């Protein structure tokens, strides 16, 4: 397009069928031609620089021949109406797509882009199938974000995610709109948010109860949501009927990687998947204490400049009918090899073999100084290791994909956590060759609980030559058991990765009964800190060997 300028129009109104007016900022080439439209629908203020030149660079998209529209969602910032999470995004998305298609500078073709909540707004619009929507690009998101914030019934409750989101991202604008904004009180709670994530019970969380006692936060936390609402906002099953081309992008240390992969696998239409060494906060290659090269530029096997160019190439195909430069649909960054590789599918089948690794101990696997081992051969003798859970001293959250205040995502040294006596640790021998993990890591864990709730936190890490243990994947699981102190088997997925452990390093699994404040804490009496405060210290047991051989199932690249 040469040096053509950018014409900017602020707060352009979009009138919906119910009379609500949504407002958008429009960035377009400074001429009288018609162009395809790329639009983002978000609840976080379209004026924020992050959405103009950080996550993606709007000027480059305009110079590539697009009208770019940034729209405040219903009930947020400049838009009218009342915001309620997820409720209106399907119909509002349909109407705004068709509105954008009819703008005088639009050629009638529309694409949607955005990450996290505004990734969900794309999927919500797509299931309504607006005729003018030709492609979407959902990044680090999911088809059931409500479930990711709240957990399903009997699952651990990631209450700190909802607390962080509502207080940190949503409440200020809402209180200002209602004319009930006490800035001093609000800032006090925001500045102390990280420390208050441990406050219990979570369903009476004081910061939000004090600032906004009628908040939708309490609808979610107290289970006051109708089945009709849940069915409407959960898009998982509906994605199997959508045939609009979709570009999915995830991060190996993003808290929404699991939902992103689930949405990708469910999606019916033509689709592409990119996963880099990224967190929800940034796509530079910095993941906690580790940095990965070729993560911010020269991406993929085709050396694409950056995420903005990935989007431009994708939309050029579907909105401009240009050739697609990518031969394969799945593009993964292989951590530990510092390179990208392209594949035909996810999950990867032909290039991966499954290997079982067994937990072994004489019952003294507490801490990394204990006798816990990972072995390739099962052990005939059954043993069990005591796993203590003291609700007043839970194992702390660190690294991974956290998405909570005061806790950075990515890779960190876990060795001090693995020194705790309430953490079971199992470590392999030094690897005789590199161990390339590629896919979903699963586990079969035998355990028993002294109460009706059995909680298990699992984390896989790489131990280097200095004894530092850097996390690779982690997960948290809860099972309601029928018989207390009786062994049950948990068949679980720990997480997905593409990570190669180095020769001479060791593989380690640590197991705990808590991960706080990310998840509500089991009080060992049938309740958790989601709804109660009083608990007691107790002991779960993890079983090894014999008929109760706890094990990992590793996906290893051939």
From TrEMBL:
SMART domains linked to this entry: PepX_C
Keywords: Hydrolase
MF term (GO), any: dipeptidyl-peptidase activity
InterPro entries: AB_hydrolase_fold, CocE/Ser_esterase, Galactose-bd-like_sf, Xaa-Pro-like_dom, Xaa-Pro_dipept_C, Xaa-Pro_dipeptidyl-ppase/CocE
Segments crossing the lipid bilayer: none
UniProt domain Xaa-Pro dipeptidyl-peptidase C-terminal: residue ranges: 312-553
Pfam family, one: Peptidase_S15
Name this polypeptide is given: CocE/NonD family hydrolase
Organism: Oceanobacillus polygoni
């Amino acid at each position: 397009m040469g040096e053509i300028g950018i014409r900017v129009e602020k707060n352009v109104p979009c009138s919906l069928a119910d009379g609500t007016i949504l407002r958008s900022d429009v960035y377009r080439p400074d001429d009288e031609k018609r162009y395809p439209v790329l639009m983002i629908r978000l609840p976080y203020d379209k004026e924020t620089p992050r959405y103009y030149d950080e996550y993606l660079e709007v000027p480059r998209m305009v110079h590539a021949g697009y009208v770019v529209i940034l729209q405040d969602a219903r009930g947020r910032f400049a838009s009218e109406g009342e915001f309620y999470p997820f409720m209106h995004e399907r119909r509002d998305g349909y109407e705004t797509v068709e509105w954008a298609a009819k703008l005088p500078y639009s050629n009638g073709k529309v694409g949607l882009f955005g990450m996290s909540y505004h990734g969900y707004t794309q999927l919500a619009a797509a299931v309504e199938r607006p005729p003018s929507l030709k492609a979407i690009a959902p990044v680090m998101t999911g088809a059931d974000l409500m479930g990711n914030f709240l957990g399903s019934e009997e699952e651990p409750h990631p209450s700190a995610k909802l607390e962080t989101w509502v207080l940190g991202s949503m409440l200020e604008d809402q209180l200002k709109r209602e004319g009930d904004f006490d800035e001093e009180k609000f800032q006090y709670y925001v500045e102390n948010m990280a420390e208050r994530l441990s406050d219990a019970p979570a369903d009476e969380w004081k910061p939000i109860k004090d600032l906004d006692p009628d908040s939708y936060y309490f609808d979610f936390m107290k289970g006051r949501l109708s089945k009709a609402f849940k069915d409407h906002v959960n898009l998982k099953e509906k994605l199997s009927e959508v045939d609009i081309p979709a570009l999915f992008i995830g991060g190996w240390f993003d808290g929404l990687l699991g939902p992103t992969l689930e949405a990708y696998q469910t999606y019916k239409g033509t689709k592409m998947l990119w996963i880099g060494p990224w967190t929800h906060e940034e796509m530079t290659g910095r993941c906690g204490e580790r940095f990965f090269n070729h993560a911010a530029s020269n991406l993929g096997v085709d050396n694409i400049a950056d995420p903005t160019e990935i989007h431009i190439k994708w939309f050029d195909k579907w909105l401009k009918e240009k050739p697609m430069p990518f031969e394969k649909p799945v593009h993964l960054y292989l951590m530990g090899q510092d390179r990208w590789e392209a594949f035909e599918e996810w999950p990867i089948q032909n290039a991966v073999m499954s290997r079982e690794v067994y937990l072994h101990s004489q019952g003294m696997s507490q801490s990394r100084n204990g006798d816990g081992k990972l072995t390739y051969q099962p052990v005939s003798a059954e043993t069990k290791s005591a796993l203590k859970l003291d609700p007043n001293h839970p194992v702390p959250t660190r690294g991974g994909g956290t998405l909570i205040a005061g806790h950075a995502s990515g890779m960190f040294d876990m060795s001090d956590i693995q020194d705790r006596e309430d953490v079971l640790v199992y470590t392999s021998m030094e690897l005789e060759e590199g161990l390339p993990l590629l896919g979903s890591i699963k586990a079969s864990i035998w355990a028993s609980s002294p109460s009706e709730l059995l909680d298990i936190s699992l984390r896989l890490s790489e131990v280097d030559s200095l004894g530092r243990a850097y996390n690779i994947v982690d997960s948290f699981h809860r099972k309601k058991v029928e018989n207390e102190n009786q062994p049950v088997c948990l068949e679980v997925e720990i997480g997905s990765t593409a990570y190669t452990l180095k020769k001479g390093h060791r593989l380690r699994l640590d197991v705990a009964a808590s991960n706080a404040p990310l998840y509500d804490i089991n009080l060992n009496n049938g309740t958790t800190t989601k709804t109660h405060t009083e608990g007691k210290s107790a002991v779960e047991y993890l079983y090894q060997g014999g008929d109760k051989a706890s094990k990992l199932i590793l996906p290893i690249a051939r």
